[in-house]
What does this fold into?
Amino acid sequence: MNPELLELCETAASLYHRGYAFGSTGNLSLRRGNQIWITPTGRSLRNLSPGDLACLSLDGQPLNSARPSKEFPFHLGCYRAQPTANALVHLHATHSVALSCLAGLNPLDPLPAVTPYYLMRVAPLGLVGYFTPGSPELASAVEHAAAHHSCLLLRNHGLISLGASLDEAVDRAEELEETARLFFLLRNENTRLLSPADRAALAAAFPHR
It folds into this structure.
């Protein structure tokens, strides 16, 4: 049994059981060489096995009989946009979805930074407009945004995080969801955001974050 594919299934189950995914929502993928392994359509993340995963070529040709998530076009687009990315996590996590539904978000800074960890793992966060899930329009918009961002907020939909490894992609997704949760906890409070000086000091201390 391929340990990387087993890890993908175990990670999917962990995200489900920790409340980051519900029902059959969410999808994950790995890039290995010229192949993409992705969670299947219509299946919950809670109980997948490696044999359930769909395998695609980088140009989207099926390489096994499993049916991939309907969002596979934006997975392929993200890997084209970020050649160093080897994993993608897409979740409908509650606070991130709630944030994505708010009117008036700043497209250049949709989630204010309240902790250094958000800046180190997530920022800058890209904001993608609403498009029908699984549509070519969504895939195109996501691919364009992924050229500049490793984390994306999809309007009225959810989040995407990319990483050089599965662990990195998951860490980014979790940090984004936690920061969105903090945003709502602090929304009616007089909140101290990280200042430009704070950001500059952090960038100097961790230049390779």
User: Anything to note?
Assistant: The chain has one domain: 3-205. The domain at 3-205 is CATH 3.40.225.10 (L-fuculose-1-phosphate Aldolase). The chain has a mean pLDDT of 96.
